[in-house]
Amino acid sequence: MAGLKPDSPFPTELIVHRASARLEVTFEDGACFCLPAEYLRVHSPSAEVRGHGAGPGVLQAGKRRVNLVAAHPVGNYAVKLVFDDGHDSGLYSWDYLYELGRDQEARWQAYLDRLARAGASRDSE
Questions:
Q1: Does the structure show a pLDDT above 90 at 7?
Q2: Could you tell me if 88 and 71 are in contact, meaning their C-beta atoms sit under 8 angstroms apart?
Q3: Whether CATH 3.40.50.720 fits 11-117
């Protein structure tokens, strides 16, 4: 889990859009991100995805159709996202969600490149 930095913007609104499989997050600094469930799932801060040590973590393939079931606030620093594939162990801190929104294009392309190098697919096998 990414830690909460003291100067991190605080979210003012979190909306799960199940029909479009997205999480909309608005921050107090005015930034607003609409993050696809697949993107959030493959970038989960859980040990299952990040791995238990240094390195690139475990490549998440076959997540194109994953959706969000719920978003549960955790204290004043994070949200626990529940996905319809059963994954629910990642705590997304506010600063990590902000980073995911801010860096979405580059992170998504890096993920697609990693899938291609591994010969894996976004679709389930």
A1: no
A2: no
A3: no
Span 69-86, mean pLDDT?
Answer: 94
Using alpha carbons, select from 14, 30, 23, 33 the residue that is nearest to residue 105. 33
Nearest residue to 83 (alpha-carbon basis) of 122, 40, 52:
40
Residue 4 has pLDDT above 90, yes or no: no
Domain ranges for the chain, please list them: 11-117
DSSP-derived secondary structure letter, 114: H
The CA–CA distances, whole Å, from 4 to 15, 55, 92, 94 equal: 21, 22, 10, 7
Which residues, including other chains, have CB under 8 Å from residue 113's CB and lie 6 or more apart?
none
In the chain, the largest separation of any two C-alpha atoms, in whole Å, equals: 43
Contact 54, 39 (CB under 8 A): no
Exposure on the CB side of residue 10, measured as CA atoms within 13 A: 6
On whether the pTM is more than 0.85, the answer is yes
Residue 33 to residue 37: CA distance in whole angstroms: 12
